[in-house]
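Encode chain A's predicted structure.
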Amino acid sequence: MEGKNDPVDLKAKKIAVAVIIIFHLVGLAGFLCGPLRPYFIQLVPFHLLLMFGVIVFSYRGPLNRLMLFVSGVFVSGFLVEVLGVYTGNIFGSYYYGRTLGLKVFAVPLLMGVNWVILIFSVAQMIRALGIRHSILASLLGAVLLTVLDFFLEPVAMALDFWHWNWSTVPLQNFIAWFVVSLILLKFCYATDLKQQKYVGATMFLAQLAFFAILRFALA
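Encoded structure for chain A:
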């Protein structure tokens, strides 16, 4: 349940949803305005940390499960990125730019945070649709995250998130995104987080709209 009879819980959800929508709209406007874009690029790390903070702020379930989820996805997602950068055998041959901030082993620490945000948001949205079978939910979530990556890739290169050593994004990247997302989503459902349907759905749909619009605007 969403804790709909708890006024404090409901207020936290409303604040979280409002913050997600407002900051994505402001960010979108900033990136679409050429003169402002360099300044908004500098704010990307703060935006990711804010979205992570929104998840923690609005969550009202057992904190030990949330911490297990966050630590598991953060470490796994970060290590996959490290292996991907150093070997070129997972996503393809790529390297990170400077936009995402501090790097460890050539990978921004915020990539771990990004995986947490992505997995949490899509997992919660799918649960809100009433899909309870974890394998089916994980498969659907992996498809949705791969679709998100389709819109994300050109934007990531344009904004110096990361760059490919080819002229186009390799098919291998999308296959790897699907597989990694599938595994992390299965882990997420195994932690049995409390349902946060409004926050999760808003977070995922805001990101999808954000990158879809920018993909065509920056093309």
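The chain has a mean pLDDT of 93.
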